[in-house]
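Changelog note: in this version the structure field was regenerated for every chain. One regenerated record is shown below for reference.
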Amino acid sequence: MTNLRFTMGELSEMKNGAHRSGIEHCDILDRERLRIELDSPGGFFIRFQHLAIPLSEAEQASFLAQYGDRIQDVVSTGFQRIERTLNRILFLQEAADVLEGVAVRFQLKKSYAADEIGHFRAFVLIQLRAITHDILHIWFGSSDKSHRFRRDIKDAERRNELEGIAHGISGGQWERHVKLPTPNNAKDQEKNDSASASADAKENGEEADKYVQVGSSSSIGVDPVSAIVAHYSHGDPLVRFRPRLQLRDLDNCMFMPVLNRSLAEKLHSVQVFANGYKLSDIRTSDFLIGYSPFTAKIPDSFTAKELADPWVRIHPSSVDSAFHLMFTSTTPRRMYSHEEMRDSPEPKVY
């Protein structure tokens, strides 16, 4: 590299001399070559930065034509990275809020007439990563017959309901509680161990798997049907008297959708929502239907005729046996934005 100017013959002679000396590659940057590089769009920025030579309008247009899109990509990528970071910080902050509830939306392949759906069962099993406030499992879902899970309705009235999604929808939710020993009840726990051991043996483990119903709901039927939603309400109404789960307690939890077979074969995708966030979106390519026999732990809720359409599990299409909500590797998407408080207009003076 030199600031001298050479003729074509001189450049050729220098390269031949380099080759005779055993140099395989020789490239000469003389003054003319440097001028050409600095006068090209790729050299405008270097020329302006180090030589303080301003760009003419034609040179600016040429530079932007070649590098404008690349600069725009760099700027937009930087803003997107900042936005993703801020969204994650906001989620981690709001993940400490009490879990108001979970909604799972079963999106169907198309809009079906209610008669094509008929009796249905759409449930979800959630297993927490850690026992929190004595809760290990959450089991909730929807079915037809609006009073199916209502314990305040007489059995005869519930049995006489018309089946099918067009006539009514019921919701139910159960929790499996596991009481952990504490320093205060450790001695009492030891005293009760011998008695509980015999009771457990007598019950053959059935009581240990028993789910406690913690809520139910009723709603009118729908026709046609494009999606079915299962709700789990967790927050206490009006006044909160006890500690409750937080949104972050769902991190790394296992969840598995469980449906009746005819409904599962109409399933397109599954979305999971909680506290205004979309936690998961399972697409068609992400799941498989597991047809192995399965018995749901809902006591006395379905007839033999209804169970003739058997339960099936929705498995991940990967090697995993169940889906997981992973907040460490994925940031849930907020479904709405905050609005700032508006100021009232000044009163008019007449």
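Spot check on this record: The chain has a mean pLDDT of 84. Residues 95-177+213-334 form one domain.
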